[in-house]
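INSTRUCTION: Work out how this chain folds

Token vocabulary: learned, describes local backbone geometry

RECORD BEGINS BELOW THIS LINE
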Amino acid sequence: GYLAWIPREKLTSLEPAKTPYSGISLSREQIVSRLDGVIDFTQAALKIPNHYLWGGTLGPNYDCSGLMQRAFSASGIWLPRDSYQQEAFTQSVTQEELLRGDLIFFGQEKVNHVALYLGEGWYIHSSGREMGRNGIGIDQLSLEGDTISLAYYQKLWGFGRVMASYRQEIFPSPIQADNLLS
């Protein structure tokens, strides 16, 4: 739902998609049936040497929302790109309602970090060097965790449940895209 930029000289290498993206409609039950795969993806990614990469959406190096987007898409569930967009896209739940596969959001003035709830008080995420593990790690959702878990817990924003697969409905028409180039 937001603009992306490409250098003008790269435009000649673009080719139109053979079929337009239309997203996929999934019921909540279909999403639930795929959440083990989402969790398995993140745990497999954890085992591969990695580091935090801002903007990273392809393994082995991810940022937080890139890891979530990639893990869900590997199971056929599409999420928006950034953590604040993922928070807006999900259905808000309370900590008491939290289920395996739900998302956990962190931030102060706005959401700027996301993690995947594993159950029993643990979550997996890709965190940075300054505040985190410089890559994918598992942390405790509690005031009882280590210093990194505690630092994130103090920035806890909320929780979200993926209820649908993301569909981007608005694309610029070719005429609008041409106008952006002039």
User: Anything to note?
Assistant: The longest helix spans residues 28-47.
